[in-house]
Amino acid sequence: MADYDYDLLVIGAGPAGEAAAMAATKSEMTVGVIDAQSDLGGNCTHKGTIPSKALRHVVKQVINYRKQPEMLHLNSFNTITYPAVLQAAKSIIPRKVAMHKAYFMRNRIHVHSGLAHFTSANSVAVEYQDSPTDNITAKHILIATGSRPYRPSNIDFNHPRIYDSDTILRMAHTPRTLVIYGAGVIGCEYASIFSGLGIKVDLINNRDSLLSFLDTEITDALSYHLRNKGVLVRHGEQFDSVDATAEMVTVHLKSGKRIKADALLWCNGRSGNTEDLQLGNAGLEANSRGQVEVDDEYRTVQPSIYAAGDVVGWPSLASASYDQGRAVVDSITNQQVRKVTDAPTGIYTLPEISSVGKTEAELTAAKVPYEVGRAFFKDTARAQISGDEVGMLKILFHLDTQEILGIHCFGAEAAEIVHIGQAIMNQTGEANNINYFTNTTFNYPTMAEAYRVAALNGLNRLKRQ
Length: 465
Ligand SMILES: Cc1cc2nc3c(=O)[nH]c(=O)nc-3n(C[C@H](O)[C@H](O)[C@H](O)COP(=O)(O)OP(=O)(O)OC[C@H]3O[C@@H](n4cnc5c(N)ncnc54)[C@H](O)[C@@H]3O)c2cc1C
Ligand SMILES: NC(=O)c1ccc[n+]([C@@H]2O[C@H](COP(=O)([O-])OP(=O)(O)OC[C@H]3O[C@@H](n4cnc5c(N)ncnc54)[C@H](O)[C@@H]3O)[C@@H](O)[C@H]2O)c1
Fold this sequence. Notes:
By secondary structure, the chain is of the alpha/beta class. It has 3 domains: about 5-45 and about 90-150 and about 270-330, FAD/NAD(P)-binding domain (3-Layer(bba) Sandwich); about 150-270, FAD/NAD(P)-binding domain, CATH 3.50.50; about 350-465, FAD/NAD-linked reductase, C-terminal dimerisation domain (Enolase-like, domain 1, 2-Layer Sandwich), CATH 3.30.390. The chain has 12 helices and 22 strands. It has helices spanning about 15-25, 40-45, 50-65, 80-90, 90-105, 185-195, 215-230, 320-330, 360-365, 380-385, 415-425, 450-465, and strands at about 5-10, 30-35, 110-115, 115-120, 125, 135-145, 145-150, 160-165, 175-180, 200-205, 230-235, 240-245, 250-255, 260, 265, 270, 305, 345, 355, 370-375, 390-400, 405-410. The strands form 5 sheets. Strands 1, 2, 3, 4, 5, 6 and 17 form a 7-stranded mixed β-sheet that branches. A 5-stranded parallel β-sheet has the order 8-15-9-10-11. A 5-stranded antiparallel β-sheet has the order 18-19-22-21-20, sandwiched between helices. A hairpin with a 5-residue loop joins strand 21 and strand 22. Helix 1 (about 15-25) runs parallel beside helix 8 (about 320-330), helix 3 (about 50-65) packs across helix 4 and helix 3 (about 50-65) packs parallel to helix 6. The longest helix has 19 residues, at about 50-65. It is globular, with a radius of gyration of 24 Å. Bound molecules: flavin-adenine dinucleotide (FAD) and nicotinamide-adenine-dinucleotide. The site of nicotinamide-adenine-dinucleotide has 20 residues, from helix 6, strand 16 and strand 18. Pfam families: Pyr_redox_2, Pyr_redox_dim. It comes from Marinagarivorans cellulosilyticus. Keywords: Cytoplasm, FAD, Flavoprotein, NAD, NADP, Nucleotide-binding, Oxidoreductase. Its EC number is 1.6.1.1. Belongs to the class-I pyridine nucleotide-disulfide oxidoreductase family.
């Protein structure tokens, strides 16, 4: 006999789980949500997107503050410490948790704060810290358990000088030097955060270039700005081992190099959270990275069990996870399901990067004839006024049809700016056209002006053909 029975049982209260739970209640389903953390919001709110973006925001304020001539006396490590910055950043978390709680209460979503595991394909047990286990049955179950940093077994993550993206949110000292191993999105974002605080960063990349899925001109700009902030990027290096003492860490690379620093931040890879779920009881199994495979409607091989968010792997973004969660409910209620395949990139380095659509390299490889229109932020009135003059917007469009094929942007608010272009790019037929930006009057001064400037630049190049 089950203690609870729901139409939809969601395991994990991050973006995917919350979006599914909310959509299901709006479709009149009874919904239960299980999360191992005592507060709602998932890893997104407690360990990933929110704390890292809040940290970056505080660091950006510190940088702006220090730029003011009257604040020059603050250019000392003693005045602004990492723990102080962290504390300021974390103040957002209780506000987010309260908001999630209000949503859940208003929509009568029952929350079970405990660790879940499957007992069959339609039943789950929840273990609590101080009360007996609940047995829950449901017509549909969603696995939305997210991911965690991948931890190689030869690194002691309990050492007080070795961190990953979860534990860096508890670092209680301010290192003077930091080695970041892994130059993916997390590594590059944290390199910006720490170098912004004046900490010397060695960023070790095991690939040949930074963020190779982005436009090369944009990653060149990122490399330049990281270097300018004192980040030393080492490409094509493989981790061998790390020695950590009470005073320092020494990272040994397979090339024979030894990098010494006050601390190591490991940012290389993530694994799906499936190890506690006892998936075998439900007739499921995870792949070598702990991820669950799903079809185009986010269904696992068990038709009543869905999976969404980081636990299904790519793109592993909060943005995509929200949409995947809603797509699950569309599938359950027999609506049209949108598989999320077109999430834009929004990378919160300093400066910020964002893009949607194809890169120049992809278009060239596919032999698509295209032209480029560029606008530099320094030439727009809004950027001149705000002082955020570093940045560029680049529009790639088809040579013959003028259809927009890609938008690439770096600089302040790039992640917002890209959505203007995305909205036009997503129009069907002739409505997706670069001429939109020359035939539309934008507010002035705004960063949207960059679209007009880039479009005119690109169309002028066409005249030279
Ligand atoms: C440092 C960092 C920065 C990021 N920045 C961005 C960004 O700027 N933009 C962006 O779009 N994405 C970003 N991401 C990615 C984003 O955080 C994730 O894609 C998102 O959190 C995934 O959401 P989710 O719903 O899959 O689950 P999660 O947010 O991972 O939450 C899963 C929940 O499931 C719970 N759980 C796990 N196992 C069990 C179990 N057995 N029983 C009960 N509960 C369980 C966990 O406690 C957790 O609360 C970032 C990630 C990191 C690490
Ligand atoms: N602003 C943003 O959008 C944002 C910010 C931070 C993180 N994220 C998301 O977080 C995820 C993690 O990013 P990242 O920078 O750590 O790494 P990454 O995805 O770039 O991977 C780094 C390296 O680790 C390897 N790897 C990944 N998982 C592994 C595993 N389980 N075992 C062994 N090797 C593994 C990969 O092959 C790669 O070489 C990304 O999917 C990213 O989308 C997004």
